[in-house]
Design brief:
Layout lengths: L1 H10 L1 H18 L3 E3 L13 E2 L5 H32 L8 H19 L5 H13 L5 H6 L1 H15 L2 H15 L1
Antiparallel strand pairs: 1-2
Length: 178
């Protein structure tokens, strides 16, 4: 499964690189040491930054969801900017080759950002462990953080097994073929 994961990260390299940047920035803000520099290494952490695990619940929540939030916000708007013009306005190469290429590229960049939304499984497991097994947060934080924690945990496994990329490919095929 690691080879398929690496291929999916290479196919969506703009989103993987930006996700690594957001993780690096979050680690810097939290004071977490980064173990191996580089965002696009050919291993199971491709598109992520290897870092020390946070010891507090809030820091674990921020490292697991903060970069995801940033990638999601950028990806949604880029995807919509390209997809709306291609799908709803029906821009084709016959209308304008330059605009068509720009919209295809913006759609690709948006999809690549959205395919790289979730953290590594280890970060998601650390978040769950700190908040719900070791109970390192207050009760209010654990209540409000439950749904994002579950989404992050499930999404980390979806991304690990390349299901996010397969789903986005299926969405694009369904949108333009049907």
């Amino acid at each position: 499964m690691t080879a398929l994961y690496i291929v999916s990260k290479i196919l969506t390299f703009p989103g993987a690189y930006v996700k690594g940047f957001w993780e690096q920035l979050t680690c810097k803000l939290l004071g977490l040491p980064v173990e191996v520099p580089g965002y696009l290494r050919i291993d199971e952490a491709c598109g992520h930054v290897e870092h020390a695990f946070p010891k507090k619940g809030w820091a674990a929540y921020l490292i697991a969801t903060g970069p995801s939030f940033m990638n999601f916000n950028i990806g949604v708007w880029m995807f919509l900017a390209g997809f709306m013009n291609l799908y709803f306005l029906g821009i084709t190469p016959n209308d304008s080759i330059g605009l068509f290429v720009v919209y295809v590229l913006v759609t690709y960049l948006g999809v690549s950002m959205l395919c790289n939304v979730f953290p590594l499984v280890e970060d998601a497991m650390n978040l769950y462990d700190l908040l719900y097994r070791q109970k390192k947060g207050n009760i209010i934080g654990r209540i409000f953080g439950f749904i994002p924690t579950v989404i992050t945990y499930a999404g980390a496994y979806l991304e690990k097994y390349c299901i996010t990329l397969v789903l986005w490919i299926a969405v694009m095929i369904l949108a333009f073929v049907l």
